Structures are given as structure tokens and as C-alpha cells.
Amino acid sequence: MVFGSIADIFFQWEHMGVFDYILPFLLVFALVFGILNATRFLGESKGIYAIIALVIGFMSLRYQYLFSDFISELFPRLGVGLAILLSIMILVGLFIEKDYQKYWAWGLSALGFVIALVIFYQTTTRMGWYWGGYGSEAVGFIVLAVLIVGVIIAVAASGGKDDGSKAAKSGAEAIFGPWRK
Fold first, then answer.
1. CA distances from 171 to 8, 67, 143, 164 (A)
2. pLDDT interval class at 105 (50, 70, 90)
3. How far apart are CA 166 and CA 157, in angstroms?
4. Looking at the predicted structure, is the pLDDT value of residue 133 above 60?
5. Rounded to whole angstroms, what are the CA distances from 128 to 24, 27, 69, 73, 145?
6. Which of 31-45, 62-76, 83-97, 101-115 shows the lowest mean pLDDT across its residues?
7. Is the distance from CB of 37 to CB of 47 less than 8 angstroms?
8. How far apart are CA 107 and CA 113, in angstroms?
9. Cα separation of 121 and 139, whole Å?
10. What is the average per-residue pLDDT within 12-27?
11. pTM of the model
């Protein structure tokens, strides 16, 4: 078969099942293997992590249309959200002094979290996973979820009594510190 353009290659890949089977499997495998490898809660054996990641990757394909449709609805929205964040980060890098950029990082993190919630809400609504008829009242649940996560991060980052011997931990270190080496 002679290909006239890259679109022909993508069309052939679509008919071969690359987008419905291979790419979702590789995504799940890579995420599960990376998380297991980073946490190392089963020891140092990467073979065990690979077997677990393979099993979970294949099991995610069991209901092919559910997972593939979710991924195909999620990632275009994720691309738009990342483009918004990237453009704001570029503008902050250009126009905000270095000393003040750390404060903007917290704001951009909060904006990224809100964008993630909006993307998740739009994707699940588009998939037909009905939110129970809340309509505009879903905003209240989203605000509640943001507040709960914020309180959890604040409590985890605050630590306990600081005797001055240790440097203050960041929020990510306080939450994920025990599982990372």
C-alpha cells in the first residue's frame, strides 16, 4: 500500500487497533510500572512490577470501548488545559521577577487543579456518566472537593513540631515522602 500522507498512516493505524488497544495498554502499563517502581513497596524486583503492570494493562482493555472512549474524550481536553497552563507559565516567566515567581507557582498549581477538575467533569459528562441531575449545583461539590484536598495538603505539609533541625518540607515531600527513596 502506498501512503500519500501522514493521515493515511494514521488511518491504517486506526484500522489496526493501535489507538484502541496498543496505546491505551502502553499508557496503563507505563503508569502502573512507574508508580510501582517509584514506591518500591514490594521490594526491589522490577520483574514483579512488570508482571503486575502487564496484568493491569491487559485488564484495562477488557472493556475496550469504556476505557478507549474515556481516553479519547479526556486527552483532547487535557491538551487544551495544558496549553492554557503553558501559555500562562511563559507569560509569568517573561514578565514576573524571579523573586515573585514562587508565589505564582502556587497560583498556577491551584489553576492546574481547577483545570483538572473541569476536564474530569466535562469528560465524565460527555461519556454519559450522569452526575445525578445536579446541573449547576455540581460547582458546590467541586468547591468542596478543592477545599478538602487543600486541607489535606495543608495538614500534611505543616508536619508537626519543628525544632529547627530539619528544613521545612514541601507539600509533595510531606505527602509522598514516606514512599519515595
1. 47, 31, 20, 18
2. confident
3. 13
4. no
5. 20, 23, 11, 11, 21
6. 62-76
7. no
8. 10
9. 10
10. 85
11. 0.53
Q: Is 56 exposed, middle or buried (0-12, 13-18, 19+ CB in 10 A)?
A: middle
3-state secondary structure the chain: CCCCCHHHHHHHHHHHCHHHHHHHHHHHHHHHHHHHHHHCCCCCCHHHHHHHHHHHHHHHCCCHHHHHHHHHHHHHHHHHHHHHHHHHHHHHHHHCCHHHHHHHHHHHHHHHHHHHHHHHHHHHHHCCCCCCCCHHHHHHHHHHHHHHHHHHHHHHHHCCCCCCCCCCCCHHHHHHHHHCC
Average pLDDT over residues 98-110: 82
Q: What's the longest Cα–Cα distance across the chain?
A: 71
pLDDT at residue 124 in the model: 83
